[in-house]
Write a structure and sequence with these properties.
With 193 residues, the protein is mainly alpha-helical. Helix content is 67%, strand content 0%. The protein contains nine helices and no strands. Helix 4 (79-96) packs across helix 8. The termini are far apart. Keywords: DNA-binding, Transcription, Transcription regulation. It comes from Streptomyces umbrinus. This is AcrR family transcriptional regulator.
């Protein structure tokens, strides 16, 4: 157990993120964190307003960590190389940090999203990668949604053991990236919102 002294909001959020990776994001509670710090639940309320506030902070932390990893991976790359680096960094984070990754999937108040440097950076990196394919709005938004749903679905199925066929999961992942690259190169542009 950690000592009572020195609890800060940042330490509490980091401990919650660690706990999420250990037991699952939905199992993170203020009581479990209080036990880790050796304090009563009520003492945590001087650092976070509620469980929802704590979970939102974990989501913001995890989103920042994830985009840091992705932006490092895509730096200096374009086209298929950038797409593959983006996808691989996304998948590695999701599989290595399952609780944190689950936190990135929750809905966050739009005012917090707008104020978050991590979310701004996520949009910048993602849209920058897709602009190399010659996409503009509204196609950019559609392409982002396609990539997010594909990556998330694949990672969720892989993490839960949902791929039972004997084909190598990494090979299927690589083929998925190949297919997405071809699709993005041949995106059917729209003229209406």
């Amino acid at each position: 157990m950690m000592a009572r002294a020195g609890i800060t909001a940042d330490r509490l959020v980091e401990a919650a993120a660690d706990l999420a990776d250990e037991v699952g994001f939905e199992s993170v509670t203020l009581s479990a964190l209080a036990r880790r710090f050796g304090v009563k639940d009520a003492s945590l309320y001087s650092h976070v307003r509620s469980l929802h506030d704590l979970r939102t902070r974990v989501a913001l932390l995890a989103g920042g960590e994830m985009i840091d990893r992705i932006s490092t991976a895509v730096a200096g790359r374009a086209g298929k190389d950038a797409l593959a680096a983006f996808a691989d960094a996304y998948r590695e984070y999701a599989l290595e940090r399952p609780g944190r990754y689950a936190a990135t999937q929750i809905r966050i108040d739009q005012s917090l999203v707008a104020a978050s440097p991590a979310f701004a950076r996520t949009a910048e990196v993602t849209y920058g990668m897709l602009r190399a394919y010659g996409l503009d709005e509204p196609d950019l938004t559609d392409a982002v949604r396609l990539l997010r749903s594909t990556f998330h679905g694949y990672c969720a199925l892989e993490a839960s053991g949902g791929f039972g066929a004997p084909r190598d999961v990494q090979t299927s992942w690589n083929r998925t990236i190949d297919a997405l690259h071809v699709l993005l190169e041949n995106w059917p542009t729209t003229s209406a919102p």
